[in-house]
Amino acid sequence: MKLLIQxxxxxxxxxxxxxxxxxxxxxxxxxxxxxxxxxxxxxxxxPIPLFTNEGELTDDGFIYYDMFSRQVNGEKVGTIITGxxxxxxxxxxxxxxxxxxxxxxxxxxLVDLVHKNEAxxxxxxxxxxxxxxxxxxNETEIIPLYxxxxxxxxxxxxIISLEYDFINGVLRAxxxxxxxxxxxxxxxxxxxxxxxxISPEINKREDxxxxxxxxxxxxxxxxxxxxxxxxxxNEFPLGLLVSIPDGYLGINDDDIIAACKSAxxxxxxxxxxxxxxxxxxxxxxxxxxINGRPLLFIKELSENIKKIPIIIIKRGILRYEDLKTLAEIxxxx
Length: 333
What we know:
alpha/beta; two-stranded antiparallel sheet
């Protein structure tokens, strides 16, 4: 087992895998050579936007993607994962758009730039609720505010329209040449509409898209995946990004696992777990003891997701000790 763990670690650090090759691997949890790109800061800590207020890539953005698709810390990059890209009408500062055909040329330019450097690129797609920045609200204020907004989407046409925001976004991403797409179900403080549907505190709808049953609250996600798969076929990689639940907006492990199981049945190819980078997610392990929240959730999810890979990006959880612990608690690589 130790040899296997060492081999996986070497693969994850040294070997740049092509994405389709990764999807064909039988590993249960795989730490591939990926790199996520968000806005970055200058030498005095001021943010340098990669995208304009309209969601268009800036000159700095193109330079940044070009630079990081060549190498990171002296190592060749295998796959870049973009920051969240909006498929709907709403946008937040520093994020890209792909909600209209007019954005395809610049996405294609970006993809061609990365491919020229012999790297792959996956785009993350999100639908923002609105322009409100929920960082400015506490949880007590957010819940009633967004409960009203989710409930007001009363007719089937509204739901179908939201679903086709994602479907058309994936089609544009495919047309732009991206090597894959991830649908975002992650996150705190990013006005993620799908996240609000999953939340039992916010989604109090009384139809098939809400209520007490987590499967019903995840129905819109399952329909997006199934309809998208029908449009794009089986060859184009389609993933799901989830966060480790922390109780925010009432979302717990069961809610995320229910959503992931629905996604698996609907045709998702892989699930990425965002383990975070904050002190809240630092694992503290002693011999034969597991106190790390990410490890426990990964094990729980692995026990429920049987047919598709779970991947962990090199962020909060890429250490030899973590690999060893995952193996010891029964996670199958």
